[in-house]
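stage 2 :: seqdesign
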């Protein structure tokens, strides 16, 4: 899963309009979380459809907005 996210999914996001950056988080061997940031006014893109051969559980995607940072 991680290899697919790094090699296919995040480069696709990075090429989209308004893309600023993305962070990749790992939650064990079979969980990968991508948090992508976009300029205001640009709708966040969805990740590419994950190939079934790399899935070990169902995919979850949802938009959210930044609330605040805590120093």
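stage 2 :: out
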């Amino acid at each position: 899963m991680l290899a697919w996210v790094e090699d296919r999914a995040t480069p696709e996001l990075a090429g989209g309009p308004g893309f600023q950056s993305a962070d990749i988080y790992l939650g064990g061997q079979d969980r990968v979380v991508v948090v992508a940031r976009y300029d205001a006014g640009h709708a966040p893109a969805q990740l590419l459809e994950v190939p079934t051969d790399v899935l070990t559980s169902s995919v979850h995607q949802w938009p959210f907005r930044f609330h605040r940072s805590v120093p």
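stage 3 :: structure notes
- The chain is about 20% helix and 20% strand.
- Residues 2-50 form one domain.
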